[in-house]
């Protein structure tokens, strides 16, 4: 790692100020950032540690609304988001216990790894990403592989969910990395259904519109029969070809609907 | 450089560290607690697992500065003052839960936090909880048996996989 300073602000305002400085970067749980610093893929002058900011921690549930602090760890969401079981289960299956004790929802969303789990839940639940500057609807947040519409130094402070009537996440694990080879999140809200797919596309997480329409008419695995995606533009690597992933999306979508 | 102070295995430990100093480097190099191992340094293997404020973390994937003020327990804190092995450590010896021993500190620390939360885990729960701990030697079978035994459960039914 190159040398850098670490600051530990106690409030969002102080963190935002520190992140205004040249070469400053946010440090969430470090479960993605520290490995990339070790590879010298990044050279920040200052890391601004968000872990000590109390107002970014924890989960508030009231009625059907669930608001999760941007600095909340995967383990805390797994244990504390009981009001939204599909989300709690997703968080409890990220990586391994030690990763879940450090990694945060804000860090995962800001990183937008094309195989990460949270992007599927956030896009699939039409969640709202709140930052120190504004609120961003999930449909406007993800901007391609490892890219988001966050501005330089902008901090994810909370993520707000409305708990759907039915929801489930079906993940086909890539057993070495424990990320999703393909993961599909389905959620039913009244007369509309959202289907968000991670792990598959070179463009990162995306909504599968045909499946959403079919499930809105009939929320059953059978409704997805005959629907398929093209392997073009799908991630192709040693773990699976684009065509394989495209096929797997259909399989995992059916499993998610059956589990919802 | 900044000054950090934390409680390590019940004793106050202070030192000067750089921003980039990892918790595992502080433990091993500043404090001489070399029981915590670095297997991969890429956050994959779990050999470096310690407890920070009661939670298992990979000490190669956390900065020492982030542990300032924290309560840290390492493998050295698992034995009694007189060096007698703790229950989990003794079970690893009794059930041959180690061969080269490189992964063992992380295995024991991870097992300790599993048993703190779930005192009688099933075999499947043990295997799932050890997902982030890699062992090149044992094939995991005897590690699972040792943890079963440490939780006071019968191990005779566990078949080799
Ligand atoms: C062994 C291993 C297995 C894993 N398995 C999975 C898996 O199965 N599924 C999965 O989804 N992920 C997995 N991960 C990734 C893990 O979930 C990370 O925790 C997550 O991707 C990043 O979150 P973090 O809090 O650690 O962020 P960091 O690593 O600290 O930061 C990542 C990026 O986000 C920025 N950032 C951090 N917090 C904020 C914020 N609040 N606002 C704005 N920007 C911010 C940082 O500047 C940095 O650019 C795994 C990681 C490891 C090491
Ligand atoms: S040395 Fe920390 S996970 Fe391998
Ligand atoms: S005993 Fe050798 S790595 Fe586990």
**What's the CATH architecture name of the largest domain in chain B?**
Roll
Largest sheet of chain A: 5 strands, antiparallel
The strand line-up of the biggest sheet of chain B is 2-1-5-3-4
Number of domains of chain A: 3
Domain module count of chain B:
2
* Ends apart, CA distance between termini of chain B: 49 Å
Radius of gyration of chain B: 16 Å
Oligomer designation: heterodimer
Structural class of chain B: alpha+beta
Secondary structure tally: strands of chain A: 12
The CATH C-level name of the largest domain in chain B is Alpha Beta
Per DSSP, what share of the residues of chain A sits in E-state strands of 2 or more residues? Answer: 15-25%
- Sketch the topology of chain B as an H/E string, one letter per element: EEHEEEHHHH
How many strand units of chain B?
5
Give the termini distance of chain A in whole angstroms.
44 Å
Which two chains have the most extensive interface, and how many residues on each? A-B, 26 and 27 residues
Q: Helix content range of the residues of chain B, please?
A: 25-40%
The low-pLDDT segments of chain B are none
Mean pLDDT of chain B: 96
Could you say which structural class the secondary elements and strand pairing of chain A correspond to?
alpha+beta
The fraction of residues assigned to DSSP E strands of chain B is: 15-25%
Short recap of the structure:
In chain A, 29% of the residues lie in helices and 23% in strands. Chain A is built from 9 helices and 12 strands. Chain B has a 5-stranded mixed sheet with strand order 2-1-5-3-4, sandwiched between helices.
């Amino acid at each position: 790692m190159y040398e850098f300073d670490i600051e530990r602000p106690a409030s969002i305002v102080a963190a935002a100020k520190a992140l205004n400085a040249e070469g400053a970067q946010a440090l969430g749980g470090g479960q993605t950032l520290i490995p990339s610093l070790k590879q010298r893929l990044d050279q920040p002058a200052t890391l601004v540690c968000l872990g000590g900011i109390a107002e970014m921690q924890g989960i508030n549930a009231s009625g059907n609304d669930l608001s999760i602090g941007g600095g909340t760890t995967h383990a805390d969401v797994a244990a504390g988001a009981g009001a939204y079981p599909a989300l709690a289960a997703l968080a409890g299956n990220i990586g391994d216990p030690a990763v879940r004790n450090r990694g945060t929802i804000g860090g995962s969303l800001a990183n937008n790894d094309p195989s990460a789990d949270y992007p599927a839940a956030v896009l699939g639940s039409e969640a709202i990403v709140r930052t120190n500057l504004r609120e961003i609807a999930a449909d406007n947040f993800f901007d391609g592989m490892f890219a988001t519409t966050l501005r330089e130094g902008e901090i994810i402070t909370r993520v707000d969910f409305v708990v759907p009537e039915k929801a489930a996440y079906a993940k086909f694990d890539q057993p070495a990395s424990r990320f999703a080879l393909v993961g599909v999140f389905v959620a039913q809200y009244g007369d509309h259904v959202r289907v968000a797919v991670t792990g598959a596309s070179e463009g990162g997480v995306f909504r599968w519109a045909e499946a959403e329409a079919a499930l809105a008419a009939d929320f059953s695995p059978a409704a997805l029969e005959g629907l398929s995606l093209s392997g073009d533009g799908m991630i192709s690597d040693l773990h699976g070809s684009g065509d394989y992933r495209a096929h797997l999306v259909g399989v995992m979508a059916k499993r998610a609907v059956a589990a919802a | 450089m900044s000054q950090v102070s934390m409680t390590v295995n019940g004793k106050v430990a202070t030192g000067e560290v750089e921003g980039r100093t990892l918790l595992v480097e502080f433990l091993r190099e500043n404090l001489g607690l070399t029981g915590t191992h670095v297997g991969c340094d890429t956050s994959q293997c779990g050999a470096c697992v310690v407890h920070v404020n009661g939670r298992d973390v990979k000490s190669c994937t956390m900065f020492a500065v982030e542990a300032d003020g924290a309560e840290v327990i390492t493998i050295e804190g698992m034995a009694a003052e007189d060096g007698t092995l703790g229950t989990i450590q003794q079970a690893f010896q009794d059930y041959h839960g180690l061969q080269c021993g490189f992964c063992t500190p992380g295995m024991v620390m991870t097992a300790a936090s599993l048993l703190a939360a779930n005192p009688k885990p099933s075999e499947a729960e043990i295997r799932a909880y050890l997902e982030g701990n890699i062992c090149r030697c044992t094939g995991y079978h005897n590690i699972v048996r040792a943890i079963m035994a440490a939780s006071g459960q019968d191990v005779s039914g566990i078949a080799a996989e």
